[in-house]
């Protein structure tokens, strides 16, 4: 029942009491700054917890394949004609130099694949360069659900005209996009696209996966000239699969050069990309948004690829080239370009070939000898770059840089004769890997603190009786020679990952290789194929369960919230006739009927606790205007309960002067007595500048307010009138002047 308190007010400022109160009181429930705010927060936490506990009811496990490709096209013309063949169709892989997974026995044989000689002889910048009759060696077409392609140098980044443009020209990216879309299967849709001068990142999803892709956000970070220009840097995209799994893709082009300063610049570039990359806040299906966007490290899975420009260090370029040329110069130029990468025993009784990693003459052995000199592996080991949980699949393929354009396995024959290197890489990191790194950092920090405490106590000095041997944690036990990455020749195992929201995912690297027989750039493209198993939310099921849980929590909260009912006395058949005529049975409040000077009018209300918990309540101070008296009641009204008020043992709302507590099902009665005897009030009522129209506020602690309207009909009086007005009163009294019939009796006469 609505109620509000007030005093007799002037008609020139009068307006609806209820409207005035509602403008000042924010709704029927208490302000969130009250203790009920904690209840609301608890409810939200409980809602999320229950939804999480019931996640199996609205999620379904799904397996998808993600293919990531990277290629520095060196701004060469015609390179866009090869992208569909190698990236979508899986063509251009040389079996002799194959990497992870390309020896799949289920792969189709290519007995009539074009020879290397024939392919090189027909090289033309205006035609595709992949070999004819190449059936593809890496999964593609409809076998892949998410295509992610990162290109570098799609425009000439050394051109001042390009670098100083105040905008990014999309013309070249559109040309690449057209070539890629022509090769993609029907129905694949563009998910994200981002360009930064020569860097271009694009993502396409299959028709079945596209509806599961949400919260797409792209950004870019320039780290080139002056640390911000776009000739170097990264373009990045974040997507959310199935409302559960966040994926981040970083396509970067780091600083070039083989000297120490260039290496330090690459390390700086990586740190800048990690620090400056920020994504838009994630908005869930219920419309709830994060307070701020996320950065790198907040995702479940991250993939970093591109021309990272890390080189082979500590070996003369000619020696590296000579070692690798042993494996490329004798490739069969005939119909089958296969080249055995392992040896076969001469013993007729033992014709089983040696595994490549055990054969001293194999390509894999040569690669294993070169990888300890790889700058990227060194920096990961030294904790300077990509050391915080990043991984890379086994490298079983030739370096991706630098080759003569138009040749299959001819390394840089120009005057610069650059050292072959794995400049182009595809790295990945899982949330579990990042957590393992963070845990190790914490443990190392705790160990460091303990060591410092021991040094302060002098326990690090020789001769201390409590010390059995000297130990330096900075140097002991580390000969600096072994790195598990150098022995990383085994196929990766599936990695279990628990998402931020508690869902279970799994990632497996299936393929990692380059495409040696793509001839249109001095870099060889490479790609990796991942299998991702994730829990996808079914939106309709989640919405239904969310509604069900919210309804149940509301019911429980309402049952636990104090609740009262207010019943107002009505005129009955036993009431005096004058009283029945003076009150309005349709009025939803306390109607005092006709009110006369100095005559008391009484009404009763009953308050009952209808909830399941004790209810504490009281009449609150009403909103007042300038001409009103403060307090819960107007000066002409008194309220008396048939129950003693609570003893004030703790602080409560300041606007409740007297509080009463009812146990569940307990009832209390209150008498409201109206009596007008103040001359100023009589004068205002006589002049009709004031009215008997008020609203009391019955406030329940931690519950909702009840508004109790009051009204009465003032019967004019000769009191408080001037002599000039009194002489004008006709025979029959003051009420005759106002067209009223004088009444000989009143309903209430007690004082």
From TrEMBL:
Inositol polyphosphate-related phosphatase domain mapped to chain residues: 62-538
An example Gene Ontology molecular-function term: phosphatidylinositol-4,5-bisphosphate 5-phosphatase activity
Top-level lineage group: Eukaryota
Biased composition (Acidic residues): 469-494
One GO BP: phosphatidylinositol dephosphorylation
Biased composition (Basic and acidic residues): 104-122, 435-458
InterPro entries attached to this UniProt entry: Endo/exonu/phosph_ase_sf, Ig-like_fold, IP5, IPPc, OCRL-1_2_ASH
Stretch list, region Disordered: 101-122, 332-353, 435-499
Protein name: Inositol polyphosphate-related phosphatase domain-containing protein
Record organism: Epicoccum nigrum
């Amino acid at each position: 029942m609505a109620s509000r308190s007030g005093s007799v007010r002037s008609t020139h400022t009068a307006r609806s009491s209820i409207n005035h109160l509602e403008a000042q009181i924010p709704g029927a429930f208490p302000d969130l700054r009250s203790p009920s705010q904690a209840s609301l927060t608890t409810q939200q936490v409980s809602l999320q917890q229950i939804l999480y506990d019931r996640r199996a009811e609205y999620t379904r496990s799904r397996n998808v394949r993600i293919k990531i490709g990277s290629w520095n096209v060196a701004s060469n013309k015609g390179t866009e004609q090869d992208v569909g063949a190698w990236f979508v169709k899986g063509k251009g892989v040389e079996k002799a130099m194959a990497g992870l997974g390309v020896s799949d026995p289920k792969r189709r044989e290519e007995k009539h694949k074009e020879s290397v000689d024939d392919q090189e002889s027909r090289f033309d910048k205006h035609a595709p360069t992949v070999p004819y009759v190449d059936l593809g060696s890496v999964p593609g077409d409809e076998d892949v659900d998410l295509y992610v392609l990162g290109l570098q140098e799609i425009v000439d980044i050394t051109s001042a005209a390009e670098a100083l443009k105040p905008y990014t020209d999309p013309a070249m990216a559109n040309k690449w996009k057209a070539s890629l879309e022509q090769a993609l299967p029907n129905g694949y849709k563009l998910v994200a696209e981002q360009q930064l001068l020569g860097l271009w990142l694009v993502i396409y999803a299959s028709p079945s996966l596209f509806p599961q892709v949400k919260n797409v956000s792209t950004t870019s970070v320039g780290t080139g000239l002056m640390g911000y220009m776009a000739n170097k840097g990264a373009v990045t995209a974040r997507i959310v699969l199935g409302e559960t799994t966040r994926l981040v893709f970083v396509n970067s082009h780091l600083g070039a050069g083989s000297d120490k300063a260039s290496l330090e610049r690459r390390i700086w570039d990586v740190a800048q990309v990690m620090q400056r990359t920020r994504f838009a806040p994630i908005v869930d299906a219920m419309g709830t948004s994060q307070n701020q966007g996320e950065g790198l490290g907040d995702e479940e899975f991250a993939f970093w690829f591109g021309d990272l420009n890390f080189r082979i260090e500590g070996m003369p370029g000619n020696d590296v080239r000579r070692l690798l040329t042993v494996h490329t110069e004798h490739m069969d130029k005939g119909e089958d370009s296969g080249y055995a990468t392992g040896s076969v025993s001469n013993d007729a009784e033992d014709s089983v070939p040696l595994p490549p990693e055990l054969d001293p003459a194999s390509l894999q052995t040569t690669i294993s000898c070169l990888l300890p000199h790889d700058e990227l592996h060194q920096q990961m080991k030294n904790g300077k770059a990509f050391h915080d949980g990043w991984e890379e699949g086994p490298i079983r393929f030739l370096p991706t840089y630098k080759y003569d354009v138009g040749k299959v396995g001819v390394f840089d024959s120009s005057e610069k004769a650059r050292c072959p290197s794995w400049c182009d890489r595809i790295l990945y990191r899982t949330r579990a890997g990042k957590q393992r790194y963070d845990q190790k950092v914490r443990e190392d920090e705790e160990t460091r603190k303990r060591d410092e405490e021991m040094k302060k106590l002098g326990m690090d000095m020789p001769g201390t009786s409590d010390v059995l041997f000297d130990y330096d944690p900075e140097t002991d036990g580390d000969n600096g020679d072994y790195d598990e990455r150098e022995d990383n020749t085994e196929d990766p195992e599936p990695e279990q990952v628990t998402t931020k929201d508690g869902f279970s995912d799994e990632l497996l690297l299936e393929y990692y290789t380059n495409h040696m027989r793509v001839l249109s750039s001095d870099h060889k493209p490479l790609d990796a194929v991942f299998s991702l198993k994730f829990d996808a939310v079914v939106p309709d099921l989640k919405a239904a369960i969310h509604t069900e849980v919210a309804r149940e929590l509301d019911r429980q909260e309402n049952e636990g919230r104090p609740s009262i009912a207010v019943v107002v006395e009505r005129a009955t058949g036993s009431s005096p006739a004058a009283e029945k005529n003076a009150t309005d049975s349709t009025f939803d409040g306390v109607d005092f009927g006709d009110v006369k000077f100095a005559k008391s009018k009484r009404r009763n209300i009953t308050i009952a606790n209808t909830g399941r918990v004790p209810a504490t309540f009281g009449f609150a101070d009403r909103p007042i205007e300038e001409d009103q008296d403060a307090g819960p009641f107007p000066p002409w009204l008194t309220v008396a309960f048939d129950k003693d008020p609570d003893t004030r043992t703790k602080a409560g709302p300041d606007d409740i002067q007297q509080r009463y507590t009812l146990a569940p099902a307990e009832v209390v009665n209150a008498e409201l007595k109206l009596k007008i005897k103040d001359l100023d009030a009589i004068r205002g009522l006589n002049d009709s500048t004031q009215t008997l129209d008020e609203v009391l506020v019955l406030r329940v602690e931690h519950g909702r307010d009840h508004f109790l309207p009051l009204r009465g009909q003032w019967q004019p009086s000769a009191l408080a009138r001037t002599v000039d007005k009194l002489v004008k009163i006709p025979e029959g009294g003051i009420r005759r002047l106002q067209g009223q019939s004088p009444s000989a009796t009143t309903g209430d006469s007690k004082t």
